[in-house]
Amino acid sequence: MYPSGKWEGFWVQEHVGRGPMTEFTLHFAGGRVRGDGKDMVGRFTFEGTYDEETGAVRMVKQYRGAHQVLYEGRPDGEGSIQGTWTIWPYDSGPFVLRPALPRPTGTEPVQEIS
Questions:
Q1: 37 and 24 in contact (C-beta within 8 Å)?
Q2: pLDDT band for position 33 (cuts 50, 70, 90)
Q3: In the prediction, which pLDDT does 100 show?
Q4: Which DSSP symbol is given to 3?
Q5: How much is the average pLDDT of 10-33?
Q6: Can you tell me the distance from the alpha carbon of 51 to that of 58, in angstroms, rounded to the nearest whole number?
Q7: What is the DSSP letter of 106?
Q8: Residue 23 CA to chain centroid, in angstroms?
Q9: Which of 48, 71, 88, 98 has its CB surrounded by the most CB atoms within 10 Å?
């Protein structure tokens, strides 16, 4: 359902704004998801589950030496996962995660249109 490898995304918190997550990894296999990465709060790991039929994802983001954040989302129909993060009972907000696309290097061959 979801590709394992490099992902990117962001979360939104009312008084903080948009918190981008630099390229991070997610590995999907047999209904389990695991990963790690970094954002403006610090280094984190992801661990949780996904439904292979519906694509629903539920995972915990654990910041090293700090708090946990619950991420619950669904596929958006275009390859991304959208949902809500929650730090219970304090706060919650939206998030988007998507597979990272290779960045152009400038050395790609030019395809002529005829």
A1: yes
A2: very high
A3: 92
A4: -
A5: 92
A6: 9
A7: S
A8: 9
A9: 71
Report whether pLDDT(71) > 80: yes
**Residue 79 exposed, middle or buried by CB count within 10 Å (0-12, 13-18, 19+):** exposed
- What string of DSSP letters covers 50-78? E-TTT--EEEEEEETTS-EEEEEEEE-SS
Cα–Cα distance measured from residue 48 to residue 37, given in angstroms and rounded to the nearest whole number:
15
Question: Of all helices (H) and strands (E), which one includes residue 85?
Answer: strand 81-87
Residue appearing with tokens 């998507």: 98
Average pLDDT over residues 24-53: 96
56-66: average pLDDT: 96
Please state whether the predicted TM-score (pTM) of the whole model is above 0.90: no
What CA–CA distance (Å, rounded) separates 16 from 91? 12
Instruction: Name the DSSP letter for residue 102.
Output: P
Two tokens, residue 17 = 């704004």
